[in-house]
Design goal:
The chain is an alpha+beta fold and 433 residues long. Helix content is 18%, strand content 32%. It contains 5 helices and 26 strands. Helix 2 runs antiparallel to helix 3.
């Protein structure tokens, strides 16, 4: 009896030992099945495809990947930064460079033109209304001398004033001096008035004489006479005015030599009282005008010395002080004209000039032009972060000798040496401001 009882106890213990692993294995399988049932798999190309087990995408045939707890595709943390869009981070083996610092001096090349000094000009206006009977001025920039006849005008008002003068002279009235004065104010000369009194004949054609020496230029109705052609474009020697500093980019109006074009005024044409007809410019003193883009003009100083020479003869170097700095808006562009007054006549009106202006920059850092990408009014560099490049917007200044001035502090940055290989289209760049 005792032996049978001991055998039953041993058999019960053996059964318990064998049953415990089996129960544990079954519990693990149930837990694993329950955990696997909560997983979802999706297609990287078609996120609308979601399944509860691995497989193939029914649309493109790609392997389904496991979704993480946040609903995104699970990825290895070591390549997490490489999975970002290419417009936010770019992986490339382009060498990285550091910006250079220190003061730099560049020579900005600008072009100019010799023109007439507007301070030495004489305007010819019609004092009475009438018809041009004879016109001796045929083309612009025609040389004239003081006292030379320019044209003859028939004016009913002048004829009536002359009849009034003769009537007063015959009647012996006291208004003779006033009648003479009226004719003088209407444009007749004293000798012409005396001739009318002496001969008693009315001058139907009253001559108009030049009031000075110089070159005559037609002044259109409602416009201003232009003593010189449009200013030439600045030489692209440096940025911000030397090759489009701060985005100038548009070129300043191209030059054109003064042309002896025919005047528009014709014989038989009527003119009104007060109408400006011609302007006479004197060549005893000329002006050299230089066109500066806005960024260059900001560094100009009144009285600053400027060295220049004719474009066709570099050996004929002259110097002069800037006497006037004038902002100009012409042909839809803003620029500044700097005038140097020339006291001698070594140069000719209409002659093209070239000048070099030294500019010193002490602030900022410098990068090669190919390391900066232009995006309209903004500029972008690619800063190196770990093994990738990130586009960052920066403020830029001057451009000179293949370098760009960067005003943003990039002293501790490593940037891509050439941005041309990092973007397919600048419009896709998203910068970090």
């Amino acid at each position: 009896m005792i032996n049978n009882y001991i055998v039953k106890i041993l058999l019960g213990l053996a059964f318990s030992v064998l049953a415990l692993p089996a129960c544990k294995s079954k519990g693990d399988k149930d837990a694993h099945a329950e955990h696997a049932a909560g997983r979802e798999y999706t297609c990287p190309m078609h996120p609308q495809i979601v399944q509860d087990k691995p497989g193939k995408c029914p649309v493109c045939g790609m392997d389904l990947v496991l979704k993480d707890a946040h609903g995104g595709m699970a990825a290895d943390s070591s390549i997490a930064m490489l999975t970002k869009p290419v417009n936010a981070r770019i992986v490339a083996t382009i060498p990285a460079i550091s910006a250079e610092s220190g003061a730099r001096t560049f020579a900005a090349g600008v072009n100019g033109i010799v023109t007439y000094d507007t301070r030495n000009q004489t305007s010819i206006s019609s004092r009475v209304g009438g018809r041009i009977e004879r016109l001796l001025v045929k083309y612009n920039y025609q040389p004239v001398r003081k006292g030379e006849m320019i044209m003859e005008v028939y004016s009913p008002e002048l004829a009536a004033a002359q009849r009034e003068l003769l009537f007063i002279a015959k009647s012996g009235g006291e208004m003779l001096s006033a009648a003479k004065q009226r004719l003088l104010l209407l444009g007749m000369q004293n000798a012409q008035v005396e001739r009318v009194l002496k001969t008693g004949e009315i001058l139907y054609r009253v001559p108009v004489f030049s009031p000075g020496n110089g070159y005559i230029l037609e002044k259109p109705v409602g416009g201003n006479a232009t003593p010189a052609p449009s200013m030439p474009a600045a030489t692209p020697a440096a940025g911000d005015g030397m090759n489009g500093m701060s985005g100038a980019a548009a070129a300043i109006p191209a030059p054109a030599a003064p042309a002896a074009t025919p005047v528009l005024l014709r014989e038989g044409q009527y003119v009104s009282a007060g109408q400006s007809l011609f302007t006479i410019y004197q060549d005893k003193a000329l002006v050299a005008e230089f066109a500066f883009p806005p960024a260059l003009a900001a560094r100009l100083i009144h009285g600053q010395k400027l060295h220049f020479h004719p474009t066709s003869d570099e050996s004929m170097v002259q110097s002069g002080n800037i006497g006037l700095i004038e902002p100009v808006f012409r042909n839809g562009m803003n620029f500044t004209i700097a005038r140097v007054y020339l006291p001698d006549n070594k140069l000719r009106a209409g002659q093209l000039l070239s000048a070099n202006v030294p500019l010193t920059y002490t602030e900022g850092w410098w990068l090669p032009k190919k390391a900066v990408s232009r995006l309209g009014n903004s500029s972008v560099v690619f800063r190196k972060e770990h093994d990738a490049y990130v586009p960052v917007a920066v403020r830029t200044g001057a451009e000179a000798d293949g370098m760009i001035q960067v005003l943003t502090d990039i002293s501790a940055w490593k940037v891509a040496s050439n941005v041309s290989y990092l973007v397919d289209s600048e419009s896709f760049i998203k910068t970090n401001h």
